[in-house]
């Protein structure tokens, strides 16, 4: 093992030494090239320098060699191909820290965007992304993808807050923030969801208020949620009541519930009021204290199960007091303990009573009162009715029904309704029959059997307890349509909650339309479209969306912004609804940033073509960019050629222009343009490049004459800056004007001689009366002629500044330069 480790260590040392040696060798090569470049510069050997530049680029592989390359060639244009090749190579090989150094060395090189992209790809946290953003200009292309990258690192409320700090300016419908919400909404606590909503307050998150409500842990949470989001009380009143009632467990919470939900369902009110009944609470405490440990454990587990259920499954679970629960349990236990022998014995007693009545040994009416105690089953109830049919009254039927109903099965209770069907008291048996329903199908079956309005109302309320998913909601709606259709009922609210929840969870627009279609006879399509709108991710899904939902304009812009660039383009090119197509085109155009996107606008959207062309053409800063755009959008070649010609300002750009555009009609114009700019050697290369053979000597003469005259003009012009004069008129003659005012330089720094930033004595010679307004004078393009002294109001000497038109010396050299320009323009080539 030791030998193996030693061998690996030796290999690593060898590799490190080899790399170091290679780097040192590259640096030596660059040092040698540096000397050769200095010699070539002394000899003005441009071709040699270019060759060395290309060679040196091959030796740049780290920070040190990059710095050396920059030192050797400090003035390379940002579009230089060798320089850009160096930066592209380093972007692929260096680590993140080193790439930041490259940004400092070559900040404006065209391919620096490759470095930005590489740093972004290597960023492993929001902090690192933030560090990159601080180094970038705000209009950098990386901002198009950096937000999407940042989403990957948002996994809790703290990182979400940091995301907002990094990207403070967000659209009202921001794709990345929506993605963060979908990612975090199930894992955040209620308090964190509230904070999340505050952090991204410019966004509108679908059903976040509903989600915050469902995450409530106590009644105070419910009340706080309603206070924060008052619309919940308008749209989900029953759900809020149920959520609040679920947390009623003592006197304090009961009082809190009653104070805030005084108009709630009577069953909630009665259940809460029991906690305020002192006798009830004392008996409840006594009952509780007498339980065995096993009973306590069982009750705790049952309460835990009840409390931990979802809002969907517990919406219609009504609480009773502990005392009521124990009484119900005791009654059931007692009923179950009635032995078959007792039932048989009581039935036999009825038979004996029947024998006595038939034998005339007892009166039917008096025997009936005593025989009620023998009725403890359906069999005995039937026998009782047979025996006392002629004497049986509603009160007796009522007593029998209410004695039996709680201990009988649902099927037996139904038999009870048949036995006493002719008595009004049968309603208690029917109510019990409905109450004992174990599922929605049984409730619906009961409602079909007992069609009276009061039984329908009971069935509707009971059936709502079994609405736990979209399937049962649809079944309930289908059978109890008129009840659900009324907008202010608990059924309407609960089923609407299910519909919206399932729309939020739908996988695609087809599923959303299918869900909405089952309930659009109750709820308007407009009320469901917002929940379905998040599923619009393509042109096809948008088509399906607008063919079913009203798709109000208020949502359409947000919906279109959800689409990917390619889907938005397809929608904008051709869509069935013209108003949506127009809006898609507007959004696509306003979001366009790349040449491909502007090319699409030019090719497909005639209403935006002119503006898109202007944007593309105005973005051209140099000939290289003109070539790039021409190759990308060849249909604009003629327009781009004009721009490219305007950008020709040196030998390199002239060569690029000739190689990439039909320059035959422009060669004379290019040469004339650059006569004024190039030195003799570059001018000779230009003449050769453009094949100019006529008046070559004249070209060199004008070049030298122009450069010499221009140099002299610059010197004289710098000595005679222009000023803007302004001030109050103190006196004037036909040709002279005296003002008390200021002289501000127009083409020179503020410390140039002749600048008067404070009011001073100024004389203006040969002034233009058109520059006078009332008693104030203001004019530009004036020159300082001289400074002298005059007499002040008290006879003291004061400085006087005299300004006038252009001095003769400057005027003469300007005329001479103009003549040379005319000669150049008239030169035949």
What key phrases describe this protein's structure?
6 strands; about 850 residues; five-stranded mixed β-barrel; single chain; about 5% strand; alpha+beta; elongated
- Overall SS class: alpha+beta
Number of helical segments with 4 or more residues: 47
Helix coverage percent: 55-70%
User: What form results from the Cα inertia axes?
Assistant: elongated
Strand content: 5-15%
Low-pLDDT runs: 10-18, 282-339
Strand order of the largest sheet: 1-2-3-6-5
Determine the mean pLDDT: 84
Cα-based radius of gyration, to the nearest Å: 47 Å
Largest sheet: 5 strands, mixed, barrel
Written account of the structure:
It is a single chain. The protein has 47 helices and six strands. β5 and β6 form a beta hairpin. A five-stranded mixed barrel has the order 1-2-3-6-5. The longest helix is centred in the first third of the chain and has 41 residues, at 2-42. It is of the alpha+beta class and 829 residues long. α1 (2-42) runs parallel beside α3.
Question: Summed up, what is this model?
Answer:
The chain is α+β, with helices and mostly antiparallel strands. Helices cover 66% and strands 7% of the residues. The chain is elongated.
Helix-strand blueprint:
Blueprint: H1 2-42, H2 46-57, H3 63-72, H4 81-93, H5 96-105, H6 112-122, H7 126-135, H8 143-151, H9 157-166, H10 175-184, H11 190-199, H12 208-214, H13 219-228, H14 231-235, H15 237-246, H16 251-260, H17 266-273, H18 278-289, H19 293-308, H20 311-314, H21 322-337, H22 340-358, H23 364-371, H24 378-387, H25 394-404, H26 410-419, H27 426-435, H28 440-449, H29 453-464, H30 470-479, H31 481-485, H32 490-505, H33 509-519, H34 525-533, H35 539-548, H36 553-562, H37 565-573, H38 578-591, H39 595-604, H40 606-618, H41 623-632, H42 637-647, H43 651-660, H44 667-675, H45 680-689, H46 696-719, E1 722-732, E2 736-745, E3 756-765, E4 772-773, E5 776-791, E6 797-804, H47 808-826
